[in-house]
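Bumping with the actual sequence this time:
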Amino acid sequence: MQRLHHLDWIDTLYRAYVVGLGLFGVLILLAFVVGDHRLASGTVADVAARGPGVVGVVTALLVAFGLRSGAHGGPLALEPPDVQHVLLAPVDRGTVLRSAALRQARGVLAIGAVAGAMVGALAGPRFSAHGGDIVSWVLACGAFGVLAATAAWGSALVASSMRLTQGVALVVGSVLVLWSIGDLVAESATSPLTMLGSLALVPVASSTLAGVGAAAVLLLVGFGFVNLGRASLEPMLHRAQLVRALRFAATVQDLRAVITLRRQLSSERARTRPWFRLPPSAPTGRAMWRRDWHGVLRWPGARVGRVAVLALVTGVACAGAVRGTTPLLLVGPIAAYVVSLDVVEGLAQDVDHPDRSSDGPVATGRRYLAHLAVPYVLMAAAGLLAFAAGMLTAALIPAGHAPSVPASVAMAAVVSVTLLGPTAAALSVHLGRPERDLTMLIVHPGVVAAQQFGPVVVLAIAFVPLLIASAEGRRGDPTGIAILVTGAAVAVALAMRSFLGSRRSDTA
């Protein structure tokens, strides 16, 4: 633990300089890119009235996630020797943990400030005609980002110091989210998180309640910081071991290990009983189909909720991009890819344990293709949910000068995502095996990076029609472009399926 206090400040400042310069460049780029459409006065009035409620709900979700992390042993990620020896030494446990918390707080504040400033850079040009310039938006959203990140981190400190169980953390987080939703519906500000949300909208809706929300966050963090010495060591040791393994897996770019360890870190375990049981069927002919469905029916509630939330996020982000904030379209491929990694779990388990099926009568490539049937169905369901969320969001957001996108174009994107998502994720899981990654990372690190990020780029093909349709001054009907892109998506998916189908046991 003592070695962490002896930092090379020159190296630290250099890292901060490089990271800060890169983030500043991204921030300036976004500020110039997002000049799409300025909002009308009526829309600005709606944002001023309902915006704090919406931002409050998002902040409440962050706090709920923080409570869940604290119940699992977070937010501190110490090294196992520090937990086993330093915290069991005859010294005040609170002193050790508070020192680690202060070091972690620097990163939390930096992430919150950068994320908030980027949101301000995106919002500033659209509100510039009615309230505040880009500088005021960057400052307001940056301050909100710092306090929102601090609220999530402080709630984790409180849950850890109070030794809250997962059930209690879930109940408290749900109450906070429902409270903020009630404020949103009633257009009131009774929740401290809704009051804090008004800080992000100070350029168009200044409110004295923002100070009350900020004070509540500081009190929350102070309470958790002071009582941090009461944290339990057992979950902290378990978390420390998982985080160490997670860092190593991320270093060698072992995607499957990262996913598995992340689920263990969140205490995500399969259900002992399925959601419902499949009816009996013929003993042969559909083994892979039934096996994968049995696995899906034992998904924990957290995974089901994560897939549903990511689908909703994809739809809402695409609708926001169509209505004028084009960079939101970058969120779609990333969220869809995470969903794809969840739905191909059956194939991933086969890849993780090749010895169990290598001597079977079914060739490796045929098994891989058979495992894709259920992911296609699940991805189609997630795509329809994203389609519904996107259409509803687009209907609620005034169009202004933004072009409207036909439902056929959005549905074409759903079809493309359904075909490309599971296939790209399956290819990534197959190519990203641990025994192959370590060698290739040393010899060809760029190839390994392409394996991990390539599927996201491939999946971005499905969102091209939305990008073209949302461009100002477009000519022609985007439906024709959507059909062409869908055809290209089918061709790419078939090519990836052909590659997977050609795999043999000696190369699997």
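The tokens above came from a reply further down the thread. The chain is about 70% helix and 0% strand.
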